[in-house]
Amino acid sequence: MTEAPESRFYTDVDALQELGISAQDIKKLKDGGFATIKAVLTASRKQLTSLKGISEIKVEKIKDSASKLSGPSFKTGK
Predict the structure, then answer these.
(1) What residues contact residue 31 under an 8 Å CB cut-off, 6+ apart?
(2) Which of 38, 53, 57, 70 measures 20 to 30 Å from 1, CA to CA?
(3) What is the DSSP string of 8-35?
(4) Rounded to whole angstroms, how far apart are CA atoms 70 and 62?
């Protein structure tokens, strides 16, 4: 049974660890209020880089990984 694309948006950010995002970075995302894949995908790069310890390079990797988890149906404004 495949998961509906909409439900993947609400997947916990812990799933990012499967794609190489560190547990420390995931904790920083959660502490910053980004608990779901949707929250990460809809956040601006500026919002994510404002989190202590999250660099622009990490933001690119996090957003890329979140996009892979969400499937092909989600498009960002940028």
Answers:
(1) 51
(2) 38
(3) HHTSBGGGGGGGT--HHHHHHHHHTT--
(4) 12
pLDDT digits (tens, 9 = 90+) for 32-59: 999 999 999 999 999 999 999 999 999 9
Share of the chain above pLDDT 70, in %: 79
Q: Of the CATH numbers 1.10.150.20, 3.60.10.10, 1.10.3720.10, 3.40.190.10, which one belongs to the domain with range 5-70?
A: 1.10.150.20
